[in-house]
Structure formats: structure tokens, C-alpha cells
Amino acid sequence: MSKAKFHIIAILMSLMWNFSYGQKFTNYSIKEGLPSNHVYRLTQDKQGFIWIITDKGIVRFNGKDVKTFTTRNGLPTNDIWGIGITADQKIWFFSKAMEVGYIDRDSVVSFPSEVKGEVLNPVVQYQTKERMGFASNFESYHLNNKRWQKVPPLLDGMVLNGATLHPKVAQILIKRAEDSVYFVDKTGRTIRQKHLKSNLLYSNLRGQLNDSLFFWTNNSGYLVCNLNTLEFYNRSFLSEINKESVNFPRFHEVNSEIQLTGSGFVAQLDSSFRVKKMYEVPEAINSHFSFVDRDETLWMATFSKGVYKFPRRKREIAYDLLDEKISELNNLEGAVVASVYDKGFYTYNASQKNFNPLVEENGYILSAAHFEALNSSFFLTGKKIIRKKEGAFKEFHTGDANFKVNTLARNLIYKESYLYGIYSGGINKIDPETLKVVENYPQVGCYSILDFKGNIYLGTPSGIKVLSDKSLQEVNFENLDFDKPILKLRKVNNNEFLITTDGFGAYTSDLTQIRQLPETNYLSVQDAYVDETD
Length: 534
Description:
Blueprint: E1 5-10, E2 17-19, H1 21-24, E3 26-28, E4 39-44, E5 50-54, E6 57-61, E7 66-69, E8 82-85, E9 91-94, E10 99-104, E11 107-112, E12 124-127, E13 132-136, E14 139-144, E15 147-151, E16 159-163, E17 171-175, E18 180-184, E19 190-195, E20 206-208, E21 213-217, E22 221-226, E23 231-236, H2 237-241, E24 250-254, E25 257-262, E26 265-269, E27 275-280, E28 289-292, E29 298-301, E30 307-310, H3 312-315, E31 324-332, E32 335-340, E33 344-349, E34 354-360, E35 365-371, E36 376-381, E37 385-389, E38 392-396, E39 411-415, E40 418-423, E41 426-430, E42 437-442, E43 448-452, E44 455-460, E45 463-468, E46 471-474, E47 486-491, E48 497-501, E49 506-509, E50 514-516, E51 525-531
Parallel strand pairs: 12-20
Antiparallel strand pairs: 1-51, 2-31, 3-30, 4-5, 5-6, 6-7, 8-9, 9-10, 10-11, 12-13, 13-14, 14-15, 16-17, 17-18, 18-19, 20-21, 21-22, 22-23, 24-25, 25-26, 26-27, 28-29, 29-30, 31-32, 32-33, 33-34, 35-36, 36-37, 37-38, 39-40, 40-41, 41-42, 43-44, 44-45, 45-46, 47-48, 48-49, 49-50
């Protein structure tokens, strides 16, 4: 038996399918077990789990199973909008509630404010490898003796911009009258004062990302400070991603990498916090927060459709004819030709990696074929057949002139000076010059035609038939009674052909034996491509 590779294209929509974003992106929503389609953020822990925070709980996702944490598991509220992970694998959650805490080995641990009855509002997060803190506007909180304790500013007359978790810099303060930033230690001693006139400093979108980095961001750009060196990096979105304004800008440290995200994009940053790689999210997905995981899979959060996933292997595929209905792919004089509903026939340009119009037609676009012996190509549509010969095109209206319906052929083969075409009622033997029917062989339901080992074979709703002595006969196999509905018959080599069925898998046969391909029991297979390179 040949070592040919079988590439099965599973199609779940009859004979015509819609190549849209649904084929590129995987969507996880309440249908797949999420507690809500309203997703605020996502991240990945060191074990590879994806954590998803929603307005109805927190989700841990392993790529297959969903584990949800809600108030029933001990969360103080289900509406969780912030998340962070420390080195000890504690999953910290942040929301407006009486308590803020973490998930540790499936147990929820949370802590109240030192002020009895205070509702915490953690808008800003501070994080190191080991610790977490947060701020509510310009009031910061650290965890002390299992209570969230408010941190007062160490210098009078200044606004506390950040109570950091840094061994050297205890606080970042702002003196508005001077447009100055003060870095002070635990004793209140000023380590450094810097004049910095920037509206970024007054943004609530700020926080400590890790042991050494503090950031500020707004719709126009971002500012990063290295707390070890007290060096600033000021970047605009216009210079980094060619956008004057960004909605929902956020910094995200994941898998020891700094990423920047916002509405419709996520970017990986280099050591100087410039964008080194950016991923754009299609507008149709309407994602406000995205990140790239350790396998370079793109994850996207939405406020109404749950989560979308886009693996690296799919991103490396060149997509064209998006949102178009493709009924056939055929090889025409060495080029791939696509039959595109209501558009016509498109040919693939390998150098440009896109499809370009070849024959423009509307309505149902069926198939295309080229026969060297006739020096002709044929383009079959639901209304007519177009022949291209010596560069000239000629149309043949083959059915009822009033309704302009093609009842001659959906697919063509050439054998012994005649064309043979299938239609819903059987096979037509056709004169290749006039395209007139010479002979007809009735058969209800004809889906595929194949020239193999000197005979013409037909795929029908009840198995395979062969044209013999001007009639259609059943094909019987030694090892199996085969009466499955056939969608396609394709030649693999001179000794084998491929059979794809409507819902019963894919098979190969040499006309003596028939064998089902592994793991195709329940596939609804519309087409297959055979690679005989090895």
C-alpha cells in the first residue's frame, strides 16, 4: 500500500461552507462552560492553566475542562475584575468587595480591611514575586497581619501616587504645583526628585508590574519607571503602534514577559519597553484585552462573547477569501482554482499568497476542470458551462432556456473522446464540441464521478456504482458490504482511490478491499487532498 498522506478537510455544512472568522478562531463562552460571556481579563500561570475573570466568577481552564470559582467557593463577590499571580502560585483576585485575597490549591483565602465594614475598591495593583498590594484611586493598601492596611503618604502636602513593594523605594509621590515626582524610602527620605510634566502621572491606570517596574498609561501612551535605577521610559501609542488613541490600555506581565494590550491589539515589549511584536485583533471580535501565552497562542477577552483563542499554527496560515462560500477547490493547469459562491472562479497566486479573479459569475459556482486532450478548460456554474479554448471563452446554456439552469453537469471527466458529467439525475455522456448529450444513464443522487482503472465510478447516496455495459452496477467489496452515502471519490494513485462519506468517515480502496481510515468514524467529510510526496 502507498505511503500517501491523506489530508481530510472536515466540513459540517453540506456541500458548501463559509470560511469566516469562525474557522480561524476558537470561541469559549457559556456554551462551553464559562459562567458568563462578560470577561474582564485573562492570564496564564506557570503550570499552563488559563485563568479567566468574569462578572460571575473566576475560571481555571486547562484547554478542555473548566473549573469555576464563585461565592459558593468562598469568593467575596462574583464580579472579579483584576487578577495577579505570585511565585507561590497564589491566584490573587481584585474587585469592589469587603475582602480581597487569593485562590490557593482550589481554596479561597481572603482578607478584610483593618477598618471594620470598609468596602475595598482595588483599582490599582502592586505586585512583586512574593507580595500583592493595591490602591483605590490615590489611597494605597498593603496586607499586614491578615488585614488590608491603608498606607498614608510619608511627605506632607503631596499626593501618594504609589505605595510600592520595593526594598529601596517605598513610595512615589507627586507635588502638583511643581510637576515633580518624589521617590522616598521607608523613613520618608527623598531618594530622588524629578521634574516631569506629564498627564500620565495622574492616571488611575498604573501599578507595579514586578519587583522593579512601575507603570502609568492612558489613551495616548505609557510611562515606565525602573525602580532600581529610577530611569523613566516615555512612549506614545502613535510612535509604537501607529495609533493616536487606544481604548482600555493595560500592562500585563505573563510568563516573565511584559505585554501591552488594549482594544484590538496586544504587543510584546523589549527591554526598553518598545514594541517588538504586535498582534492585531479583528474588529469583528471586539476584544478589549488580549495576551500571548507561552505557546504563542493569542487569547482575547470580550464583554459579550466570552473568550477567543487563536493558536500560532493558525496564525502562520495565509487566509484569503474570508467570509466567502467555497464549494470546490480544483487543480487547473497546475494552479489551484476556488469556486466562490456568487463571485466566480478564483485562481491562487503562489508568490503573492492570495486568490485573484479568473472567471466572474454570480449564483452557484460548481467546479472547474482542464483536459489536455481537448486543449480546453471548463467552468461549471448553476446556470451554464463556460469553455476556455485557445484563450477564447464560450458560454453554453445547457438547461431550460427560461430558467437558465445547468442540468448537464456539476463535475466533468474526459474519457475515450467524450465528456462525462454528473447531475442530480445521473450521468450524461457529452459531445465535447457541442456539449450536447449523446447518452444518459439515470441514477437518483449523483455526488461524485471518477475515472479509475479504465472504468467510470459514481458516488451515490447508497454506495459506489460503476458504469458497465451502458448501465450502472453496484460495486461489491470482498471484506465489507458498503452502502454509505458518498460525497467524494478521489484518485490516490494508480492502485487506490479515496472515498469520503457524509457522516460515516473516510475510506481507501483498490476495488477489492475497502478500509476505513483511522479516527474518521464520525467525521462529516466533504473533500480530501492527497499528498503522494512520500
